[in-house]
């Protein structure tokens, strides 16, 4: 699995894929980062808790880049408007439908990403753990009550889009 997270010391975005070590220095600030890697993570490749902050609850969602999704939507809408401008409503509707289908297919075949409620660490390339549920707003508020307004709907997506 690959863990993507912010260094707890200097907030640099880091990526770890070596779970054999329990700690390693941050490549940016040099301070030691402790990873609480469990046997389940090492042997079964499953996320059972957050290795970065030791939070027990993580959620699973589609690894969806919101900017990409919106771009596809906007491109389809513009093409439709161009067709409508030239009185090609049938073609325009077909183009629009093709874009909607493409968006849906893209979403369907996207891999999952497991995300920590507390520190937003992201785990990719993991074996699905049935104990991990989709995102729940109530839980997010519990773990991060101050961040309710700032994109609490899906904070990690915003972070990723940057
Ligand atoms: Zn650092
Ligand atoms: Zn965490």
Concise description?
By secondary structure, the chain is α+β, with helices and mostly antiparallel strands. The chain contains five helices and eight strands; from the N terminus they run ββββαβααβββαα.
Q: Can you give a write-up of this model?
A:
This protein starts with a strand and ends with a helix. Helix 2 (66-85) runs antiparallel to helix 3 (89-108). Strand 6 and strand 7 form a beta hairpin. 36% of the residues lie in helices and 19% in strands. It has helices at 39-43, 66-85, 89-108, 137-143, 155-161; strands at 2-6, 13-16, 23-25, 32-34, 58-62, 112-116, 122-124, 133-134. The longest helix is centred in the middle third of the chain and has 20 residues, at 66-85. With 162 residues, it is of the alpha+beta class. The chain has two domains: 2-62 and 112-161, no CATH class; 66-108. The strands form two sheets. A six-stranded mixed β-sheet has the order 2-1-7-6-5-8, with no helix packed on it. It has a two-stranded antiparallel ribbon with strand order 3-4. The structure holds zinc ion (2 copies). Residues 50, 52-53, 55, 116, 118-119, 121 line the site of one zinc ion.
Which tags fit this structure?
162 residues; alpha+beta; 2 domains; 6-stranded mixed β-sheet; two-stranded antiparallel ribbon; 5 helices; 8 strands; 19% strand; binds zinc ion
Q: How far is the N terminus from the C terminus?
A: 22 Å
Indicate the percent of residues in helices: 25-40%
The number of helical runs is: 5
Largest sheet, in brief, is:
6 strands, mixed
H/E element sequence: EEEEHEHHEEEHH
Strand order of the largest sheet: 2-1-7-6-5-8
Low-confidence stretches: none
Shape: elongated
């Amino acid at each position: 699995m690959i863990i993507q997270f912010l260094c707890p010391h200097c907030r640099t975005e880091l990526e770890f894929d070596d779970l054999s070590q329990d700690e390693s220095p941050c490549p940016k600030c040099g301070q030691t980062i402790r990873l609480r890697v469990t046997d389940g993570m090492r042997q079964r490749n499953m996320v059972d808790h957050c290795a970065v902050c030791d939070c027990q609850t993580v959620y699973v969602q589609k690894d969806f880049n919101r900017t990409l999704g919106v771009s596809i939507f906007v491109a389809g809408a513009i093409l439709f408007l161009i067709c409508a401008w030239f009185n090609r409503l049938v073609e325009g509707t077909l183009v629009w439908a093709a874009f909607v289908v493409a968006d849906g297919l893209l979403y369907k075949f996207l891999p999952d990403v497991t995300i920590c409620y507390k520190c937003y660490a992201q785990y990719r390339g993991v074996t699905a753990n049935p104990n991990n549920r989709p995102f729940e707003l109530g839980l997010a508020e519990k773990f991060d009550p101050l961040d309710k307004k700032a994109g609490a709907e899906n904070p990690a997506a915003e972070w990723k889009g940057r």
